[in-house]
Amino acid sequence: MSKLQGKVAVVTGASKGIGAGIATALARDGAAVVVNYASSRAGADAVVEAILSSGGRAIAVQADVTKIAEAQGLIEAAVKQFGRLDVLVNNSGIYEFAAIEDVTEEHYRRLFDVNVLGVLLATQAAAKHLGEGASIVNISSAITHVHTPTAAVYAGTKGALNAISGVLANELAPRRIRVNVVSPGLVITEGTHNAGVVGSEMEAGIIAQTPLGRAGQPDDIAAVVAFLASDEARWLTGEDIAASGGIR
């Protein structure tokens, strides 16, 4: 039997990149998956179609998790469709760099709203439906360890996420709900292409620092998330797993 058989998962920001890889992996391991998207309906539909065509169960649900009513609506849609909720993967995130002299209020608020507030609101909405053995996995970044220039705001959001995750691990532990973090290194996605990282000197520098000598792929991250979502990780909470090829 697949290790997530009978479980229901919500993956935020799952229309592309790491989120799409996670949604696909959870479905492959037996979970029914809610593929959340903010604006890319076509991308979310493609992920759902791929899951359905492989014999899995999935639906796409639009929601901006920075808005409390929409975050609640996302979780309610999962429970209405599949009857329960066992796994929340907080993957939605914005990936932008700016030198300190170029940081603006808009840049700061946009990143913190999505990368931090969105996690809080989605988790708040999900917590009332999660029972014993449930798992929350928050997607952070190895950038909190490597301190990349021009990433002050982005790294700040992920540092905040790490601290929040530790608090929630303790806060939800009496209910036997686990909270863990996965911190990817450089992963080849639409986001890293659009940010100009892929093919740049930055990419070459990061790969040079990565002991395993390559950039990651979404499946590399998805496999770790699927493990944390499963009962195989039943004794893990409050952990930050660096899925980064060894970069620190």
- Report strand order across the widest sheet: 3-2-1-4-5-6-7
**Overall 3D geometry?**
globular
Discrete helix count: 9
Count of domain modules: 1
Tell me the CATH superfamily: NAD(P)-binding Rossmann-like Domain
Write down the Rg.
17 Å
- Strand-residue proportion: 15-25%
Structural category: alpha/beta
Largest sheet: 7 strands, parallel
Q: What is the H/E string?
A: EHEHEHEHEHHEHHHE
Number of strands: 7
Question: Uncertain runs with pLDDT below 50, 5 residues or more?
Answer: none
Distance between the termini: 36 Å
CATH top level assignment: Alpha Beta
Helix content: 40-55%
* CATH architectural grouping: 3-Layer(aba) Sandwich
Walk me through the structure:
The chain has 248 residues and is of the alpha/beta class. The protein has one domain: 3-Layer(aba) Sandwich (Rossmann fold), CATH 3.40.50. 46% of the residues lie in helices and 17% in strands. The protein is built from nine helices and seven strands, in the order βαβαβαβαβααβαααβ. The protein has a seven-stranded parallel sheet with strand order 3-2-1-4-5-6-7, sandwiched between helices. The protein is globular, with a radius of gyration of 17 Å. Keywords: Oxidoreductase. InterPro entries: NAD(P)-bd_dom_sf (IPR036291), Sc_DH/Rdtase_CS (IPR020904), SDR_fam (IPR002347). It is an enzyme of class 1 (oxidoreductase). One of its GO terms (molecular function) is glucose 1-dehydrogenase [NAD(P)+] activity.
